[in-house]
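Data availability (excerpt). The following record was deposited with the supplementary files.
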Amino acid sequence: MTRPLEGVRVLDMSRIFAGPCAGQILGDLGAEVIKVERPGVGDDTRSWGPPFVRDAEGRETSETGYFLCLNRAKKSVTIDIARPEGQDLIRGLAARSDVLLENFKPGTLARYGLGWEDLRAVNPRLIYCSVTGFGQDGPYRDRAAYDFIIQAMGGLMSVTGEREDRPGGGPQKVGVPLVDLMTGLYATVAIQAALAARERTGEGQAIDIAMLDVLVGSLANQAQNYLLTGRVPRPAGNDHPNIVPQRVFDTADGGRFCIVVGNDSQFRAFCRAAGVPELAEDPRFATNPQRVRNRAALDAILEPLMASRSAAEWMAALDAVGVPCGPINDMAQVFSDPHVAARGMRIDMEHPSCGAVPLVASPMRFSSTPLTYETPPPMLGEHVEEVLGGVLGLPEEEIARLRAAGVV
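Predicted structure:
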């Protein structure tokens, strides 16, 4: 069976995280993704190690875990876009592609004759998606950005971390590059929307995705709370600004687990399971707005109560009455969890230089067009002959000449 984006060709000129994330999602969905890298150097993340992958004999290779997590389902070609012949190769590939994905600073590709206006002239159906830190216009357009900087500037760090009056309190970044991930997802959604629009209009278009825009657009209830009240939210640890109780509790066995009580019926069920049904009738706690207003008083009651049983006992009791709860797993526990295993979230792919390498699967599941994993993260320039010969029709001797000249 074909995959959802079978027949779509993506020219991926992006590097590092957000753009390659989008390219991998499109590749998992079945698009042919051609990754363009710098000759001899490649994507920056090829050097972002350790850890480096070890081969079947246990020897360390030059392949990094960081690169592997973002570049499955792609073919790698190396092209020097600063050279006129390299620019001609990009134009030829763009003329035969449906999507171009790039994350250079605004105006960079235009200086090489590879901007949106340049390439739409050779392919009016091209979807040209630019991913940057701050967008194609505005006072910050020329500034460099990484996920960490955007988490700070976009307000995420101001609401993440322990409360400022507690040990370790203050702004904190999220433990994964969340803005990069969300930017890759938004870019993927926008590209697919543009492909759908092209079915009606017959024309491509430019897409401008900015990491700062993505984060501001993802501040969700925290942003809306501020806009409605004018009160600036602060880090609150694991507490929820609008739901009580949601937090981590210490238990009798020295363990910890988390609960979320999302409505009043769940709170009543929680109180019954905890052996304090009268707590649900207390006017201070009977409704969620009252629990939010009386958070400290409820915490003072719940903390010693939760410390009276083990984490396993609490989770069994709360699961039985439908109150959401869960353990706080580390990575080893995540990937040994029977449910994660049953959902197939770890896959192993045969890499051309490393042997079998473990990867995280896509979370997307389709009933009629299931995803398959056929192309492992490529070695640098692995597919030069396949792409330049198969897509552009260049003869072997011409590709050899371009190699000798350092163009590819």
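Summary of structural features: The chain has two domains: 9-218+341-404, 246-329.
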